[in-house]
């Protein structure tokens, strides 16, 4: 680019947008478009993508067509463009939200040459009347915003986006600029191929945002963790993402009752309410928006200080884009994600019934997300590697860097993995090879008879998840690469081939296992161990044993172990606090609670414990209609089978509900049902067993009565009667 051209662009930038200089590669992108060439622009959120097509549209003859997926995004960008110009018609959008009169006005302005930018939804672009209209005007270029929507491998695939190229050919050929904030090499290739711009100049900004802090937490007591986090960051703006509309509503309500300025946002709300909530967030009338992933695209709020994912996202691309909405001004941005493998299993279930190819893509994207969540490697390093970029040094600004796990030499494990990739001739994906090494005879492995090859089970002292982590290290060190055309197939790089003859040290650390975590580590006062304060648990069990001897009842009748563990975490020091403990109802609190809270109060004072109860989380009051119905029906001596049927339960599910009611201290007499359903001598045997038992475990009781005459349901019913009579 000549100095004159550069000076001219700088002046134009200052004149229209008020900026003194371009960011990153903005100037090169703009000049490329002014030269009439296609471009693929990959810039992270906040990188200034919009300017790369807004500025050249003002300089070129004709109207630029911007294809954009969201009406809210179009409106924001049109408003922004109009704020830079005295001409109201300089930018318009054409979509289903307009009235007939408004559509006529838009078309008149475009035909009169007033409009330099016309935003169009892909659905509107395909309408015959709009195609005919666009054929009548001079088009300067086409900008495809949120271009990842084109690819089936992208995180927000829209089938109508794949029809864009044929429509462009029908209207009028002009340069194309495709823009996205997230695209893996596979997605980038797919976008360029579909748009017919394989030879386009690629502009790729770094994905690294050093101001963003990444952390993954176990999804246990997550609502309490969220409230604590927000209260520790009072007055700061934040977004909480949930996968379901129902969870958005519930969580927003829960935040509000805890005196947090929050509002919900999802596609199921009426348009005025939804846009009103968005505006209140932008105008800082509320601090927190709880939203589905529909929120945030094109929202230009630079001072979002935290982004929380209540549910793990479906793909790393979506995750990166959503976390990228934090700290766009270069200031603090905390990205907290709650993870449980159970959420991944739910997402897999949602995919059932979809076309096989779509399921395969969805599973691959989920596997990447699981790998990220469970890994103990530097998190930005993993994210950047996913997008084809290398971070040479650890970020020192994520949970894994700040709290590293002990490391071990992984050279031999990596060599074993590379050897396996070679033996199967580079034809399989990570999970498949990991299962071969771990000795897991999956249906795919059996069908290829790979359970009979020499390396099958050669690494069976480790789980498949461990070998997945080994593969991830091989990928990050560029010893292996995932084939772009055949997504997921592992191939050697030149470096990987060389490594097998001249290996070097690669250190690894054990991955997280969040499904085994207790979540209690976020609460103050914990002395270690899996269930809270170990010393206090011993004291509580000692007190329980003393009371059980005095009252001549088994210890578990007084309080079960989960209740004692919860006491050792929450430290209740009065009856009101005791009632919030798992499995403690009014009856038990009245009958046994006094000595327990007195012991805990002494312990707290002597050890100067900071209690989580000092940090109070208010719950949403939920109607317990089912509970009331069960109690009333049992009082009327209604058959348990009929109660279950009336509420759409199976009998085991109803027994679970009744157990919860009885365990919390409410007395329920189901003797009438037991007398009809169970033979008297069998019921007596079971009752006698619980009188002598050390624990109230159903599993132990089933093992004791290893006889077909004693069913698990019978044991559960008699135990309910026993707990109600002895404990309540």
Describe the structure.
With 728 residues, the chain is of the alpha/beta class. The chain has 34 helices and 17 strands. Strand 3 (91-94), helix 5 (100-111) and strand 4 (117-120) form a beta-alpha-beta unit. Mean pLDDT is 84; it is low at 516-531.
Q: Which CATH-level-2 architecture of the largest domain?
A: 3-Layer(aba) Sandwich
Query: What's the number of structural domains?
Result: 5
Low-pLDDT residue spans: 516-531
Mean pLDDT: 84
CATH topology of the largest domain: Rossmann fold
Task: Give the strand order of the largest sheet, numbering strands 1, 2, ... along the chain.
Answer: 3-4-2-5-6-1-7
Proportion of β residues? Answer: 5-15%
Radius of gyration: 31 Å
By CATH reckoning, the class of the largest domain would read: Alpha Beta
Distance between the termini: 85 Å
**Percentage of residues in helical conformation:** 40-55%
What would you give as the CATH superfamily of the largest domain? P-loop containing nucleotide triphosphate hydrolases
Query: How is the main sheet built?
Result: 7 strands, parallel
Helix/sheet category: alpha/beta
Q: Could you tell me the number of beta strands?
A: 17
Shape, please?
Answer: globular
Supply the number of helical segments.
34
């Amino acid at each position: 680019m000549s100095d004159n051209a550069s000076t001219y662009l700088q002046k134009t930038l200052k004149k229209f947008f008020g900026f003194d200089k371009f960011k990153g590669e903005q100037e090169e992108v703009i000049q490329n478009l002014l030269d009439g060439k296609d471009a693929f622009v990959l810039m992270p959120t906040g990188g200034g993508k919009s300017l790369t097509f807004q500025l050249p549209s003002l300089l070129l003859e004709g109207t630029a067509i911007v294809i954009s997926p969201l009406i809210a995004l179009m409106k924001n960008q049109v408003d922004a463009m109009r704020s830079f110009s005295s001409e109201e018609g300089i930018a318009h959008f054409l979509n289903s939200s307009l009235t007939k009169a408004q559509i006529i006005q838009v078309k008149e302005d475009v035909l009169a040459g007033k409009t330099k930018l016309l935003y169009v939804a892909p659905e509107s672009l395909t309408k015959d009347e709009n195609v005919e209209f666009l054929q009548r005007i001079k088009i300067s270029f086409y900008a495809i915003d949120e271009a990842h929507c084109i690819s089936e491998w992208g995180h927000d695939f829209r089938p109508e986006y794949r029809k864009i190229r044929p429509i462009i050919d029908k209207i009028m050929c002009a340069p194309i600029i495709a823009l996205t904030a997230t695209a893996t090499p596979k997605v980038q290739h797919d976008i360029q191929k579909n748009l017919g711009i394989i030879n386009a100049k690629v502009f790729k900004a770094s994905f690294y945002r050093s101001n963003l802090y990444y952390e993954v937490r176990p999804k246990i007591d997550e609502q309490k963790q969220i409230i604590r986090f927000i209260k520790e960051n009072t007055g700061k703006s934040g977004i909480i993402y949930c996968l379901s509309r129902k969870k958005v509503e519930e969580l927003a309500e829960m935040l509000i009752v805890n005196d947090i300025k929050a509002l919900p946002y999802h596609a199921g709300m009426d348009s005025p309410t939804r846009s009103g909530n968005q505006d209140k967030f932008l105008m800082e009338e509320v601090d927190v928006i709880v939203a589905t992933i529909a929120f945030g695209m094109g929202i230009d709020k630079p001072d979002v200080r935290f982004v929380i994912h209540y549910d793990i996202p479906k793909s790393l691309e979506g995750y990166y884009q959503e976390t990228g909405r934090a700290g766009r001004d270069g200031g603090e941005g905390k990205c907290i994600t709650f993870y449980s493998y159970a959420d991944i299993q739910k997402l897999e279930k949602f995919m059932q019934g979809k076309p096989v190819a779509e399921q395969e893509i969805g599973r691959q994207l989920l596997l990447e997300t699981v790998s990220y969540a469970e890994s103990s490697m530097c998190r930005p390093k993993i994210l950047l590697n996913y997008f084809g970029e290398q971070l040479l040094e650890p970020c020192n600004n994520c949970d894994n860097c700040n709290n590293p796990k002990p490391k071990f030499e992984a050279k031999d494990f990596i060599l074993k993995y590379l050897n396996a990739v070679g033996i199967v001739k580079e034809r399989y994906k990570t999970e498949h090879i990991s299962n071969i090494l771990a000795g897991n005879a999956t249906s795919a492995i059996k069908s290829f008879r790979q359970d009979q090859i020499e390396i099958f089970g050669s690494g069976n002292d480790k789980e498949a998840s461990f070998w997945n982590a080994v593969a991830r290290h091989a990928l990050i060190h560029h010893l292996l690469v995932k084939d772009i055309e055949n997504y997921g197939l592992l191939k050697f790089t030149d470096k990987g081939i060389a490594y097998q003859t001249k290996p070097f040290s690669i250190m690894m650390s054990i991955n997280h296992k969040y499904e085994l975590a207790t979540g209690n580590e976020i609460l103050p006062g914990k002395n270690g161990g899996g269930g809270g304060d170990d010393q206090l648990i011993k004291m509580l069990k000692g007190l329980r044993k003393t009371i059980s001897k005095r009252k001549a009842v088994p210890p578990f009748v007084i309080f079960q172990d989960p209740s004692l563990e919860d006491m050792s975490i929450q430290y209740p020091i009065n009856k009101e606090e005791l009632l919030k403990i798992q499995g403690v109802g009014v009856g038990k609190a009245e009958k046994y609670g006094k000595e327990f809270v007195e012991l805990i109060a002494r312990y707290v004072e002597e050890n100067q414990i900071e209690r989580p109860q000092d940090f109070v989380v208010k719950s949403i009051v939920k109607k317990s209609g089912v509970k009331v119905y069960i109690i009333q029906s049992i009082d009327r001596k209604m058959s348990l089978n009929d109660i279950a049927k009336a509420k759409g339960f199976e009998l085991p599910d109803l027994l679970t509900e009744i157990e919860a009611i009885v365990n919390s201290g409410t007395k329920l007499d189901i003797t009438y049902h037991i007398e009809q359903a169970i033979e008297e001598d069998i019921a007596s045997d079971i009752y006698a067993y619980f009188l002598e038992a050390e624990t109230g475990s159903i599993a132990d009781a089933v093992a004791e009565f290893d006889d077909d005459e004693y069913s698990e349901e019978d044991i559960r019913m008699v135990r309910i009667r026993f707990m109600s009579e002895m404990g309540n």
